[in-house]
Design brief:
The protein has three helices and nine strands; from the N terminus they run E-E-H-E-E-E-H-E-E-H-E-E. Strands 1, 2, 3, 4, 5, 6, 7, 8 and 9 form a nine-stranded mixed sheet that branches.
């Protein structure tokens, strides 16, 4: 198994080119399936105000420790995992931009589907990253993952 991350947090949005760059660098001939999750900031409307951007904040040392626990748990559940790469944005991410990237490579597709879903759910449940949603009128609210 390979975890490619240098760190799990990245300032600003995840550019689409970064996804291609990661995939091009993988040289694992035993991977038969990649599952990719892309989390995008939605332009939700709440009380007639549209989300303009989300400002993400985190506790980096806790994120690193918790991501390692999440990945260790997933490796114990899915023995077919060969590759994992996770990036979560911090700072400002505008509506329509990507804030979360999870790539899982496995020997077989079913394991890759299950593993990427498990990782995303555990990130939403346990990762110490907080969201402040800013609206078109510059008001904001703190939100929780659902």
């Amino acid at each position: 198994m390979v975890i490619q991350n240098q760190g799990f947090l990245q300032d600003g949005p995840v550019p689409f080119q970064q996804i291609a760059d990661i995939l091009v660098k993988i040289n694992a001939l035993n991977i038969g399936a990649y599952s990719i999750f892309l989390g995008q900031v939605r332009a939700d409307v709440l009380e007639e105000k549209k989300v303009k951007y989300i400002e993400y904040s985190s506790y980096p040392q806790m994120v690193e420790a918790e991501m390692k626990k999440i990945l260790d748990h997933c490796f114990s559940l899915y023995s077919d995992i060969e590759f994992v790469h996770v990036v979560h944005s911090t700072g400002i991410v505008k509506a329509g931009e990507l804030s979360l990237l999870v790539i899982v490579g496995c020997g077989h597709r079913k394991e890759s589907f299950k593993a990427v879903e498990t990782i995303v759910e555990l990130i939403k449940e346990r990762l110490p990253v907080w969201k402040k949603e800013y609206f078109s009128d510059d008001s904001y609210i703190w939100t929780q993952n659902k």
